[in-house]
Design goal:
The structure is a homodimer. The first copy, chain A, contains 15 helices and 13 strands. By secondary structure, chain A is an alpha/beta fold. In chain A, helix 1 runs antiparallel to helix 3, helix 4 runs parallel beside helix 5 and helix 9 packs across helix 10. The first copy, chain A, is globular and about 65 Å long. Chains A and B meet through helix 8, strand 13 and helix 15 of A and helix 8, strand 13 and helix 15 of B. Strand 13 of chain A pairs antiparallel with strand 13 of chain B, so a sheet runs across the interface.
């Protein structure tokens, strides 16, 4: 039996779902000779660690209890009630994770899993890579920091997996990495990478006013609490940056032209969410309706996409042929078109649900299993 | 620099394209610290091997010369003119490949690449796996032999890659393996896995008669020399069997219900190609036109697909909603819909060119690179 030690950072929705997946797949992985041994779990302030990281893991009852505790909104500090473990707090957390990485990195190996949303894990991840650990990311931030840090981080790209940072579990990054490895030259990537904006564009296509569509999306819980977090396009830009860098572009977030679907004067500093929803949105309706109308009259449809071509990455509304994969897209699925030497006229297309804790955590687990050959 | 020794069996179109890709990607792979060292190449009768398989490889000029020779229809026996090599013939070929596999398998490692179309490589591949070698397949036959042989062969599945056996370079198998590894449960896979039949169905949808469409496809070189090799569905069934077995179905080719697009009495033993094209085909027109008409009247379209669901795999015409990924498919692209716990109502969709030497060889090369962590 090959034992793969894991340390999970972040036990929000994705992290907890991952722990459930690990518990649920024990027998499946045992059949393949694999044992996933969770040696530690941290949230933003606390870390719980198995008594002896070389030989033990936090057992499944303990992990299930931990998930229950976290989903009730409590802190990890109460976890010593539920079984033998070491508990570390605040500034001790990072120090202890580095200790574990140093102990296991070059001996048994360790997968450090980042399911947090923090921009502060990157230093720790860098050290862990240097110590021989593998990294699996659902957190986009370590891949969207400034280019010098990124290049330093990915020097040992084979130790890193990050499928769930773009399109949740959809095999977008896996496929791009295969294409690049085969020497196929990627000319262009165009993707609808936000389920929310995919839904919005598809409703607009049916002739509904923008304000009505956004309100409906919010009431269906398709948007962030402040819908401007979706409409601004920054989340799409972060995913675009990750793909662009994989393709070799040495760019930063600042280099991406991002077209927001609302004007600056309706920004969060100038309008409350309620003002934006009630008074702001209707002021945008006419402009967007005209753009929808114009593209339709030319046989096109309007999509909110990320486009990577040549040395440029841009995010915003684009007119696309009605009769193309992105043009035919309806609803909240993500869809990525990859044009390359092998997929020249007609792209390689990957489409499916691009959000949700279940599929995101499934992508993380597939990444972990994909690393198994790096373990003794 | 990590050196990965390769031995290529089969130097038809895909094998030769692979050698070209290997030569063309040398600098790309060197940047990642990889050296692909081609220690031997065989066709059906001859094997050429580098002088010392531990330290040398056949050099790029030699490999380019080999490609030229083979594309001109010559045998590999003439290769000693072009550089230092050992040449083996007929019954010596397999014996020598086993020797190389034994020498390298447990020391430096070896990737044995099967780009042949032979059903006789499976014994050799089995021995190579036992000797610690990795296997990359473009050849479908080793995965479609009887289930006992298959199960024996895939006992060490991590040593085997086979992306190019289904949909050429499309990441269908990679994606399925990720989904399975993550513990996601696959309920149903439906795929249009023949570019030829995809083209035919899409032309039928436009109201053209079957006979006319098949004749056009033949004159465009979209079909095999005998179009019945496509229309019979056996190639689709072989791909379906590979996917079904990956999903855990313990079935053989015989267990797959295959609906041919021509009746038995028009088979190759009873009609020449010309008779079939001139007299046979028009007799099928009415029946197929009725089926196209019927499905259209119900808001559906007719597709020739492979369906894997529960414990069954079947191949043939199926009515699918016009407004589904397969329903919207046009032309010769392959398309696979995967329904699972994570992709329940709306499937994970992978679409793109599913044939061609360039993309098939690119898939093989991506598989080789994917094995790098198994090499010291």
């Amino acid at each position: 039996m090959k034992s793969i030690p894991l340390l999970l950072m972040g036990c929000g929705g994705v992290g907890r779902q991952l722990l459930h997946h690990i518990i649920d797949t024990r027998s499946l992985h045992a059949k393949q000779g694999l044992l996933l041994r969770v040696v530690g779990v941290s949230d933003s302030q606390t870390l719980v660690v198995a008594p002896d990281v070389f030989t033990t893991g936090l057992n499944d009852n303990y992990l299930a209890e931990l998930c229950r505790l976290k989903s009730s909104g409590s802190s990890l500090t109460a976890m010593n009630k539920f079984g033998e473990c070491q508990i570390f707090k605040n500034f001790e957390v990072t120090k202890k994770i580095v200790d574990v990485a140093a102990l296991l990195g070059r001996s048994t190996g360790l997968v450090l899993i980042d399911c947090s949303a923090s921009s502060e894990t990157v230093g720790l991840l860098n050290r862990a890579v240097d110590l021989g650990c593998c990294i699996v990311l659902a957190n986009k931030k370590p891949l969207t920091s400034k280019i010098e840090d990124y290049e330093n981080f990915v020097l040992n790209l084979r130790q890193i997996r990050c499928e769930s940072t773009v399109g949740a579990g959809l095999p977008v990054i896996t496929s791009l990495i295969r294409i690049i490895a085969s020497g196929d030259t990627v000319h262009r990537v165009v993707g609808s990478l936000s389920g929310t904006l995919g839904y919005v564009m598809s409703e607009l296509e049916d002739g509904k006013p923008f304000s009505q569509v956004v309100r409906a999306a919010k009431s269906l819980d398709y948007t962030e609490p402040d819908p401007r977090d979706d409409l601004g396009g920054m989340d799409v830009a972060r995913k675009g940056l990750i793909l662009a860098r994989l393709l070799g572009l040495k760019i930063n977030m600042d280099d991406i032209k991002v077209d927001s679907l609302y004007p600056d004067e309706m920004g969060p500093c100038l309008m409350t969410i309620e003002e934006f929803m009630d008074k702001g949105l209707p002021l945008i309706d006419k402009d967007i309706a005209e753009r929808v109308q114009k593209s339709s009259s030319e046989g096109n449809v309007l999509r909110y996409v990320c486009t990577i071509e040549g040395s440029r990455c841009q995010v915003g509304l684009q007119e696309l042929p009605k009769n193309s994969p992105l043009g035919r897209l309806r609803g909240s699925d993500n869809l990525v078109e990859i044009y390359s030497r092998c997929y020249k006229k007609l792209p390689l297309v990957i489409q499916g649900a691009g959000a949700g804790n279940d599929t995101t955590a499934a992508g993380v687990l597939a990444d972990v299993i994909d690393l198994q050959d790096r373990f003794p």
